[in-house]
Design goal:
22 helices, Jelly Rolls, Rossmann fold, alpha+beta
Length: about 800
């Protein structure tokens, strides 16, 4: 077990002693050594409610293989060896070592990547410094030791001595001194500037707030806002009916476009009347019955952060229609932020007669969430809205074209073949769940859905003004908040290009930006054991939303990447991207038995009754049913480790016997080896505790799972009529050569010595593109084709 930790600070000794005193330990360095041990170690058992129980608890901890901690303290020691201290520490941290192995306690700590002091403890000051470090050390419960103590009741009475509840900071982070079981749960309706259902009234946006009771007692708190279109559920039955069958024919394109043609222009703002409210209040009239959906938000409730959820325009409880990432959805997220920052109205109910302010908020907001949720956080950030101090977006889309399209092709998010923007609109239009609500808007909804279906253009797959309106990277210069981006390197749903293109676009902006890349698919990162993501985000949010000068900007590495070979290993870099590029000619630097193939993949797929998942596995195998429908190129086994870091790109010269075609490329890791699974395994069910006597979540970890012959590293697709971009086309004359150039998905991948790089060139991708039935013959000019690899 490796418990990497990057969010821990090392303040000077005076600060350490001050902080120990503040949280209730006796940090007097002049106290006799044995007395300091006795007074401080007893505090490590907060579930022991009296002195007798604390004394009993000390007997359960061994100092070495012949005495307990209770006996050791009774003998009035004047010093403690480093081995003895860490024998005790391992048990306090919940590692449960056998007493026979306690002599190797320091080695066990270091093997787990845990920090240790360098010398024996010969003074009380030495002990206090070691104690401070221990409290900031991670446990197998994912959290730090002080967090673990808090989860067991260490701070349960902290607010008893304060008329107005107070924050407590330790090691630069906000501590769990607010009771998450005593929440004010309420609903308000934020007034927007939208009228997406065209009823002449401003769309109201239902918004649910969970705020600690301390806010009613005078404590102003920041808000963690999650814009969650799924908050009121999804329409699964309607989605099944709306899902597209992958088209059997690839259209021949006849019309090219210019950049001007495909540029979106914002229409003039609507001049909508505001409701004439007759009263104002601090008391909501609707209870928030829906539960929060993100454990990171729940974790921060006890640390003095309110959490806010809004499903947005076109969802149950709100007005309007869905636009699938369009400007109206950005505007609805921004409207909630503006209410939180004090510059917009909300009402206690849909009658619009009584306004209510976010009077409990300190007007500092962060946005959190994964997938569509994180996407709307990025969208809101590009508005430059005041009060939004940071975004923590995970697996987020930065351009919807990159989600549903690629280089002039219709593509599917991984695992959802046939999904498109119109399908997602159906899925998230939760107003469908209330029949009475639909009575007045059914026809408007149907017209809106038809407009989305037409605008998304499944015929050509080209970039157009509708997609341009959903490209948030057009507005990066407007971002004023700091950005934390998290993404799975094996995410085929929201592919890595979405986060890397965003991160690269932020490079020159005067904001802080941090990037986390893990080995998973489309998942959150906060409950992965090997990384202190939660602790790092505590440092980050304490700085951004509570104004604590804790050095978060410099403490958190710019880029953190999980290794794909060494389990539980994370690398830190100043930037993402290569130090050099290696250009590989497909004729001279690769081995291949042929340069032509006929794409019969659709027929093979149908005959084998394959699925998207089984195709993804089969296409990269050395022996495959799809062998005749691909080119297979390999390099010699590596005599050194190779680290890819960045975006591979490929240039191919070829001719085909048709006027159009799909071209797909896969870069693969060849050689039998145990490789990481794309789904994390459960390490401890309900082992991650989110507060004292509060919710829990499973602890998980990515790890090698089984031996395989091949692993996908990166991939890409292009419509051969779109050689340079997704809106200009070229005419293909059968039999005449042409050239295409396109990027593969960004990656960070360690290829150990002894493995081989493989390159697969094929046609239609049964898992991600449409599935044409026409057989196209491809003839590659390998001498004039090359792959560029980003090398760290």
């Amino acid at each position: 077990m490796k418990l990497n930790q990057f969010g821990r600070l090392t303040p000077n000794v005076a600060t350490q002693l001050q902080e120990l005193n503040q949280i209730g330990f006796n940090a007097d360095p002049d106290l006799p050594f044995a007395q300091s041990l006795a007074e401080n170690y007893r505090l490590c058992f907060p579930e022991a409610l009296n002195a007798a129980q604390q004394a009993q608890a000390l007997t359960t901890i061994a100092v070495d293989d012949h005495q307990s901690l209770a006996t050791f303290i009774e003998n009035a020691p004047t010093q403690m060896t480093r081995t003895q201290f860490y024998a005790v520490a391992l048990q306090l941290l919940s590692f449960r070592p056998e007493f026979k192995s306690l002599n190797s306690a320091v080695d066990q700590m270091q093997a787990a990547q845990l920090p240790v002091v360098d010398t024996d403890l010969t003074t009380t000051a030495d002990f206090l410094e070691a104690l401070y470090l221990l409290l900031n050390t991670r446990t197998p419960k994912l959290v730090t030791y002080l967090d673990d103590l808090a989860n067991r009741g260490f701070f349960k009475n902290f607010q008893d001595d304060h008329d107005v509840p107070q924050y407590l900071f330790f090691n630069g982070k906000s501590q769990a001194v607010f009771d998450p079981r005593q929440l004010i749960r309420e609903v308000v309706w934020v007034e927007s500037d939208l009228d997406t259902d065209e009823d002449g009234q401003r769309d109201l946006l239902e918004t649910t707030i969970f705020r600690p009771k301390a806010t009613d007692l005078g404590t102003k708190m920041p808000a963690l806002f999650t814009a969650n279109p799924y908050f009121h559920g999804t329409n699964d039955e309607q989605v099944e009916a709306a899902t597209h069958v992958p088209e059997p024919e690839l259209a021949v394109k006849t019309q090219s476009h210019t950049k001007t043609d495909v540029t979106y222009h914002e229409p003039a703002a609507l001049d909508l009347p505001k409701a004439e409210a007759s009263a104002t209040t601090h008391t909501a009239t609707s209870y928030g019955s829906e539960n929060g959906i993100y454990s990171l938000n729940d974790y921060f409730l006890s640390r003095g952060f309110a959490t806010v959820y809004s499903a947005g325009v076109g969802t149950q409880g709100s007005d309007g229609l869905r636009s699938v990432g369009g400007p109206s959805e950005t505007a609805s997220a921004v409207a909630v932020i503006e209410w939180l920052n004090g510059s917009r109205r909300a009402f206690t109910d849909r009658t619009r007669t009584t306004t209510i302010d976010a009077w409990w908020c300190n007007h500092k907001i962060a946005m959190t969430g994964k997938s569509y949720l994180g996407t709307l956080a990025i969208a809101a950030a590009t508005s430059g809205v005041a009060g939004l101090k940071t975004v923590i977006s995970e697996a987020a889309i930065s351009s919807w074209y990159d989600y549903y399209r690629e280089n002039g092709l219709v593509v599917a998010p991984g695992g959802f073949q046939g999904e498109d923007a119109d399908v997602l609109a159906v899925d998230t239009f939760s107003r469908l769940k209330q029949a009475g609500d639909m009575l007045g808007i059914q026809s408007k909804w149907e017209a809106s859905l038809q407009a989305i279906e037409a605008a998304q253009d499944r015929t050509t797959g080209d970039y157009n003004a509708w997609w341009d309106a959903r490209n948030y990277r057009n507005h990066l210069k407007e971002i004023r908040c700091d950005i934390v981006s998290v993404h799975g390197l094996n995410d085929t749903n929201v592919k890595p290009a979405n986060v890397i293109r965003l991160f690269e676009g932020l490079k020159d902006l005067p904001i802080q930006k941090k990037l986390f890349l893990h080995q998973g698919q489309h998942v959150y990162l906060n409950n992965v054991l090997s990384l202190d993501f939660t602790d790092q985000m505590n440092l980050w949010l304490t700085n951004k939303l509570l104004g604590v000068d804790n050095g978060a900007n410099d403490t958190l590495p710019n880029v953190q990447v999980q290794d794909n070979v060494q389990p539980q290993t994370w690398h830190q870099y100043d930037a993402f991207g290569p130090s050099t590029t290696e250009s590989l000619n497909l004729a001279t630097d690769w081995q291949s038995v042929r340069s032509s193939f006929a794409d019969n993949a659709t027929a093979t797929f149908n005959a084998a009754h394959d699925t998207s998942a089984s195709f993804e596995t089969a296409i990269i195998q050395p022996t495959s049913a799809y062998a005749d429908s691909r080119l297979w190129l390999t390099q010699a086994p590596l005599d050194h480790d190779l680290v890819l870091d960045g975006t591979p790109d490929i240039t191919l010269k070829l001719w085909i016997d048709a006027p159009t075609a799909i071209l797909s490329v896969r870069l693969i890791d060849l050689g039998e080896a145990k490789r990481f699974g794309e789904t994390a395994s459960t390490v401890a069910r309900d082992g991650y505790q989110l507060g004292y006597d509060y919710k829990t979540q499973d602890i998980v970890e990515f790890a090698p799972v089984k031996a395989t012959d091949a692993k996908l590293i990166s991939y890409g697709h292009v419509n051969v009529q779109n050689p340079e971009n997704a809106y200009e086309i070229q005419t293909i004359t059968p039999g005449e050569p042409f050239t295409v150039h396109f990027d593969l998905q960004p990656t960070h991948y360690v290829l150990p010595a002894g493995r081989q790089l493989g390159l697969i060139i094929h046609g239609a991708d049964m898992a991600q593109t449409i599935r044409p039935t026409a057989v196209v013959n491809y003839h590659l000019d390998l001498d004039h084709s090359q792959l560029n690899l980003p090398i760290r």
